[in-house]
Design brief:
By secondary structure, the chain is α/β, with parallel strands linked by helices. It folds into two domains: 124 residues, HAD superfamily/HAD-like (Rossmann fold, 3-Layer(aba) Sandwich); 67 residues. The chain is built from eleven helices and seven strands. The strands form two sheets. Strands 5-4-1-6-7 form a five-stranded parallel beta sheet, sandwiched between helices. It has a two-stranded antiparallel sheet with strand order 2-3. Strand 4, helix 7 and strand 5 form a beta-alpha-beta unit. Helix 6 packs parallel to helix 11. It is elongated, with a radius of gyration of 18 Å.
């Protein structure tokens, strides 16, 4: 195993909690109706294209054309986005801060729309404490596309074999491994501490 020189954090569900349902409980009180809305209208597949760089107005127009009766709720997705980020994952933030304080090279790689990430930076200043971040919405590629990992390596002059990636998504972990990185799937802060210890990194 190559010693780790670089540590790369995902953001959503690793450092901050993302829960679209939280923003719609008052708008669509019935749980079954809410589930139908996310399964059929504002789906994960639709939302990921904003992470790839599609503009919100274009994304909304596409859905409104197909679901005109849902226009108010479709527009509410972006308008109420701030309610979807319910809290920071404090145990992970503590690990992030300790790694940086100890002199480790820490960066971030995230699937995130450009505008909403800037909002997150204002609410959660710890997201700006690493050496830098690659944002999918800024460059037009999303994890697990190989290109986004290679772009991150080039932007921050990383050695892929000496890079450890932390992401909650199994497919994104595999994507990093396919790009020549080491990677672990985030489960919770305690598991992350144990994973880091396996790589000889104490936090």
């Amino acid at each position: 195993m190559t010693p780790v020189k670089h540590i790369v954090f995902d953001i959503g569900q690793v450092l901050i909690h993302y829960e679209p349902d939280a923003a719609f409980r008052s708008l669509i009180p019935d749980a079954d109706e809410r589930k139908w809305f996310f399964d059929n209208v504002c789906t994960s597949a639709w939302n990921i294209e904003q992470d790839r760089g599609r503009k919100w107005e274009d994304a909304e127009a596409l859905l409104i054309a197909d679901f005109p009766d849902c226009e108010q709720h479709i527009r509410a997705f972006r308008q109420n986005w701030h309610l979807m980020i319910t809290h920071s994952i404090d145990g992970s933030v503590e690990i992030l801060r300790k790694l940086i304080a100890d002199g480790h090279d820490v960066t971030m790689l995230t699937n995130f729309a450009s505008d909403t990430l800037r909002e997150a930076w204002e609410r959660f200043p710890f997201l700006t404490t690493s050496r830098g971040v690659t944002v999918s919405g800024d460059i037009g590629y999303i994890k697990p596309d190989r290109e986004i990992y290679d772009r991150h390596v080039a932007a921050f002059d990383l050695d892929p074999a000496a890079t450890l990636f932390i992401d909650d998504s199994a497919k994104n972990v595999v994507g990093a491994q396919n790009a020549g990185w080491q990677a672990v799937q985030f489960i919770d802060p305690a598991t992350l501490r144990a994973d880091l210890a396996r790589f000889g990194i104490a936090v």
